[in-house]
């Protein structure tokens, strides 16, 4: 019996070691492209063209100077992108959570058809409606305006679906009934009780929504023609050299500056995701 127990312990340790090794390798594979991007931001164009390197070079400041000489305004780009991405993310997670709460907590006649309609909207690509959307914004004189890039974030079918599934698994309707008995209004119940319960799901979707809106190039490139309103992806897409030479170091520097806020947002919100996973692993 003791030999059997020792064998099982050894097998468990071997399996755990293999899992750790695989996780480390996957983590390195995920980090490697970003590391190469930041390394290339410190290398000159001839060094980049000579081959791959994992060690930083000494041309970061020169790449930054070349980048700024190309009318690249990172401060203005950061402000524009953060205004659009931050506002759109807040609208996405709040109104999607509110819609999902209405689909779960209320028993109304058209609840299932309404949810089916939301699922059908997910099948329509944004490019299919872009022409009509641009014409509509042009008639409203909303071109060169951030509002067409922010307000549509209220309707996010994929986020509504995720939030609904999360509430179906975690929300106890007895909590809602108890709040109503105590005289709490519907919006007060949602803001004070439901939103804190949904924080792990909100943090997860906030990361995805912020990244999607920050990296969005298609609609801003169509709607924004004023250079003072350009977002970071538009500025990076315009980083092209002349006919004879392309400064790849400055292009990588622009890409690195564009990706840096995404890492910051992820690290700020990841603790809520980890807390939610740990909370879900606790058995009552």
From TrEMBL:
Q: Which Pfam families does the entry mention?
A: BPD_transp_1
Which keywords fit this entry according to its UniProt record? Cell membrane, Membrane, Transmembrane, Transmembrane helix, Transport
Recorded hits in Gene3D superfamilies, A to Z, give: MetI-like
What InterPro entries does UniProt report for this protein, alphabetically? MetI-like, MetI-like_sf
How does this chain sit within the bilayer?
Multi-pass membrane protein
Q: Where in the cell is it found?
A: Cell membrane
- Mainly localized where? membrane
- Entry's transmembrane regions: 18-38, 78-102, 114-134, 146-163, 193-214, 249-269
Family affiliation: Belongs to the binding-protein-dependent transport system permease family.
Write the protein's name. Answer: Carbohydrate ABC transporter permease
């Amino acid at each position: 019996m003791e030999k059997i127990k020792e064998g099982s312990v050894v097998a468990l340790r071997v399996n755990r070691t293999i899992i750790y090794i695989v996780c480390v390798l996957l983590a390195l594979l995920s980090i490697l492209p970003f590391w190469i991007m930041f390394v290339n931001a410190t290398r000159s164009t001839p060094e980049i063209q000579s081959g791959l390197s994992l060690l930083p070079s000494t041309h970061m400041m020169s790449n930054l100077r070349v980048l700024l000489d190309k009318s690249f305004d990172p401060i203005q780009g950061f402000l524009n992108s953060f205004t659009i991405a931050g506002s759109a993310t807040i609208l996405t997670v709040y109104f999607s959570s509110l819609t999902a709460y209405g689909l779960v907590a209320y028993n109304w006649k058209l609840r299932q058809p309404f949810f089916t309609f939301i699922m059908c909207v997910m099948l329509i690509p944004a490019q299919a409606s872009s022409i009509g959307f641009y014409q509509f914004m042009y008639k409203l004189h909303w071109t060169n305006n951030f509002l067409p890039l922010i307000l549509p974030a209220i309707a996010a079918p994929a986020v509504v679906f995720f939030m609904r599934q999360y509430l179906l698994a975690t929300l106890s309707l007895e909590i809602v009934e108890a709040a109503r008995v105590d005289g709490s209004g519907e919006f007060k119940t949602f803001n004070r009780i439901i939103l804190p319960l949904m924080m792990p799901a909100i943090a997860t979707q906030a990361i995805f929504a912020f990244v999607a809106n920050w990296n969005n190039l298609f609609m801003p490139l169509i709607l924004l023609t004023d250079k003072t309103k350009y977002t970071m992806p538009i500025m990076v897409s315009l980083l092209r050299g002349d006919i004879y030479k392309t400064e790849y170091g400055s292009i990588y520097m622009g890409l690195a500056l564009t990706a840096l806020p995404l890492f910051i947002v992820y690290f700020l919100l990841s603790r809520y995701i980890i807390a939610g996973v740990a909370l879900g692993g606790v058995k009552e």
